[in-house]
């Protein structure tokens, strides 16, 4: 496979075309941003750690019947993924209150929900990724009702499996964000990445954050924390 033109630069990844029109090349960068890109810092090994974590999780999900765009990890910072047309929505699933939910409704930190909470945010840097509901999605023609229903269905399946993986690692999955794309055949396919950049993870014993909140709130060294997540994940996945 041959790396082609740069298609897109994200906050922590770069996407390139390849000589195969159905395959994209993803470079994971040693970079972290917060506050919609206003806070940006180089972080040693972050790209490598997130690439490995995301590859392990996507492989596990595929093994558990949740198809996704991941094809293979080429090297420490490089994944090959299936090309899809990204749907400009961030799908957030929450099992307990944190972050924007906690701020918005002034509830206790980590208050547990009886049922997972599902939210969509419209991907727009200019608008700061606003919350968007189903009828707003329909009005703006962002996605069809069938697509939205399928995204919700898959998001809850991802939540079930991720909760199981993290429980085995002694970690509480507080919330996470995923993104979907559409294949040429119109199938909704899980894409983007799943890593501590896009999940809130809390150590069940120490209650310490094992995710990007360490960077957002200056709680310690991000590399050390992400290494810990990869180590525990590799142990769990290795034993299956
Ligand atoms: O900030 P908020 O509480 O809405 O975030 C919910 C979840 O979505 C968190 O796990 C956060 O890391 C993730 N998220 C993300 N990218 C964003 C916004 C939120 O990965 N742009």
Automatic annotation (TrEMBL):
Protein name: Phosphoribosylaminoimidazole-succinocarboxamide synthase
Residue ranges of domain SAICAR synthetase/ADE2 N-terminal in the record: 7-232
Reactions performed catalytically: 5-amino-1-(5-phospho-D-ribosyl)imidazole-4-carboxylate + L-aspartate + ATP = (2S)-2-[5-amino-1-(5-phospho-beta-D-ribosyl)imidazole-4-carboxamido]succinate + ADP + phosphate + 2 H(+)
Domain of life according to the entry: Bacteria
UniProt family annotation: Belongs to the SAICAR synthetase family.
Gene Ontology terms, MF aspect: ATP binding; phosphoribosylaminoimidazolesuccinocarboxamide synthase activity
Protein's UniProt keywords contain Phosphoprotein: no
E.C. code: 6.3.2.6
Pfam families named in the record: SAICAR_synt
Keywords per UniProt: ATP-binding, Ligase, Nucleotide-binding, Purine biosynthesis
GO biological process: 'de novo' IMP biosynthetic process; cobalamin biosynthetic process
Pathway: Purine metabolism; IMP biosynthesis via de novo pathway; 5-amino-1-(5-phospho-D-ribosyl)imidazole-4-carboxamide from 5-amino-1-(5-phospho-D-ribosyl)imidazole-4-carboxylate: step 1/2
């Amino acid at each position: 496979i041959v790396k082609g033109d740069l298609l897109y630069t994200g906050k922590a990844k770069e996407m390139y075309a390849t000589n195969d029109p159905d395959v994209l090349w993803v470079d994971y960068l040693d970079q972290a941003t917060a506050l919609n890109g206003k806070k940006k810092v180089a972080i040693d090994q972050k790209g490598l750690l997130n690439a490995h974590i995301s590859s392990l999780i996507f492989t596990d999900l595929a093994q558990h019947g949740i198809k996704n765009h991941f094809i293979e990890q080429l090297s420490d910072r490089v994944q090959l993924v299936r090309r899809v047309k990204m749907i400009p929505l961030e799908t957030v699933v929450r099992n307990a209150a944190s972050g924007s939910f906690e701020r918005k409704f002034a509830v206790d930190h980590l208050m547990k929900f009886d049922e997972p909470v599902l939210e969509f945010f419209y991907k727009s840097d200019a608008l700061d990724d606003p919350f968007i509901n189903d009828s707003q999605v329909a009005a703006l023609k962002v996605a069809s009702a069938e697509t939205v229903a399928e995204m919700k269905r898959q998001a809850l399946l991802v939540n079930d499996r991720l909760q199981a993986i993290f429980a085995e690692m002694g970690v509480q999955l507080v919330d996470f964000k995923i993104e979907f794309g559409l294949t040429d055949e119109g199938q909704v396919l899980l894409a983007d990445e799943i890593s501590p950049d896009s999940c809130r993870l809390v150590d069940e014993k120490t209650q310490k954050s094992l995710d990007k909140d360490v960077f957002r709130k200056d709680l310690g060294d991000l590399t050390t924390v992400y290494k810990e997540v990869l180590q525990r994940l590799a142990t769990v996945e290795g034993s299956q």
